[in-house]
Amino acid sequence: MATVAVSRGARPLVVSAVWRTRLGYGALLAFLAYLVVLPLFRLQSLAFEDGARGYQAQYGRYDIGQTIRTTIALAVTSLAIAMVLGTVLAFAATRLPRRLSFLRIVPILPIVMPAVANVVGWAFLLSPGPGYLNALLRTLPWWNTLDSGPVDVYSTPWIIILTGFGLTSFVYLFVSAGMQNISSEHLEAAQISGSSTLGVFFRVVLPLLRPSLVYGGGIALLLGLGQFTGPLLLGQNAGVKVLTTEMYRRVSESPADFAAAAAAGSPLVIFGIVVVLAQKMLLGNQKRFVTHGGKAFAPNTGRSVWAAAAISVYAILALVVPLIGLAIVAVSPYWSESLSWNLFTLDNFRALFQTASIVDSVFTSLLTSVVAVAICVPIGYLTATLLVRGRKHRVLGTIGDVITALPLGIPAVIFGVGFLLTYTQPPLILYGTKAVIILVYVVLMVPFSTRMQMTAMLSLGETYAEASATSGASPFVTNVRVILPLMRPTVLSAVALMFILLTHEFAASLLVRAATTQVMGTLLFDLWENGSYPLVAAMALLMTAVTSIGVVFAMLVGGRNVLSNL
């Protein structure tokens, strides 16, 4: 009887809906913290062990000053190039007539071409000896006495120029999105007041673009600081070093020095955090930059010749020219400045599909990219929901915002080193598996998935969710049947962007790969190191084709505006 009384008097444990939600978000953030924060913590802790031996080993070198100066010069100068070109191209895109409106997507297309393929293509063209463009330049009267050159693509200035061209598309994405939100009434008012096209641009357009310029410039600066592909492929010949290549050298030497590698990456981590905070301070209250009016940015399209010409020239230099360099080498038996139609062959492409390691690398790239994207989309959606609608979970929202922002401010090579250190030790030894590649891909892509879906949620507002809740739908039903269908274009754009970036990914992959687990970019690097240049060119074209097919598929599913929605 006593037992029965106790059982009748006991109250069942009831957890409120708010706390169930908090526990769910807490589990999500714990998972993200394990992936994002733990590798960074272990890496930076190692740099301070044994009396900060890692810092002494790295910053006691005689050439460290030159390495830091080169890193800063690369970041700042390439940022200046990208900001100028990206802003001019975005303004030019608004000056196009309807019959040439398709050119607006052209400045985005260089993103589809892998950075490693772009760099290699320019190397084939501007290498001092066998470079095809250099050989052509040496036929001119000014340089016909030269045996090599006149351009040296392996020099610091050309690494900076190519990096600036590569960052231009990212700046264009941010600035063009900002221009779409500028009402044409402001421009018409300025023109009626007598301002010229340049006056309108500098006095009206640029001030209103301040949020886009600050954010896009911050992202481009961080990408410039974390540049790895160009300095690694082109800088080795001339001894050009930056902090990211120093990290790679430290962990690839025998024995690996993770402490020194962590110390080399510390300035990049600190500066990344500073840039993110500076963005928020510079933007301040973003409502100051909101314009009102019924008409979008649609300035007079009468002066459109320069706009079409500017976009076309950029496309030729950033996309067409390096592809030509790759195509020539890919159909040649060897890389030489002398060309002959009789030597052209498709044997290199046949060799790609007959080499088991190359076929495996393509499969691994596709598998790891698709799985990582499939994981990132729901994580990004849940995190975006927490940031946008989690008024009752402000602390969790702040933590989630910080965790998901870290991979944007910290170069991929640092996460690569961190994952290499973390997953070659217990409790999870994943080195040499596809799982570690997928995990590092998830870390790198979570910011993009979260930010893009968060922007879409903010634009939708609360009306649809409130109407669904009023009708009696649960939060799950509201998200699945109402919010997600409305966000379909943005989700597909996020999928397209993440797939593009992951099939290109090179820095982190190079550090966590193993001899038996390669992706396309890392195998291309091995071919480059071995001097198999025709296979390098063919592999670079294959990487570009794989990414292009993925983008076309996304456009078929999500519509033609998938790329423009990036």
Automatic annotation (TrEMBL):
It is a multi-pass membrane protein. Residues 68-279, 362-554 form the ABC transmembrane type-1 domain. InterPro entries: MetI-like (IPR000515), MetI-like_sf (IPR035906). Gene3D superfamilies: MetI-like (1.10.3720.10). The keyword Nucleotide-binding does not apply. SUPFAM superfamilies: MetI-like. The chain crosses the membrane at residues 23-41, 72-93, 105-125, 156-175, 213-234, 258-278, 305-335, 362-387, 399-422, 428-448, 491-512, 532-557. It is found in: Cell inner membrane; Cell membrane. The keyword Transport applies. Its main location: membrane. CDD domains: TM_PBP2 (cd06261). Belongs to the binding-protein-dependent transport system permease family. This is Iron ABC transporter permease. It comes from Rhodococcus pseudokoreensis. The lineage of its organism: Bacteria, Bacillati, Actinomycetota, Actinomycetes, Mycobacteriales.
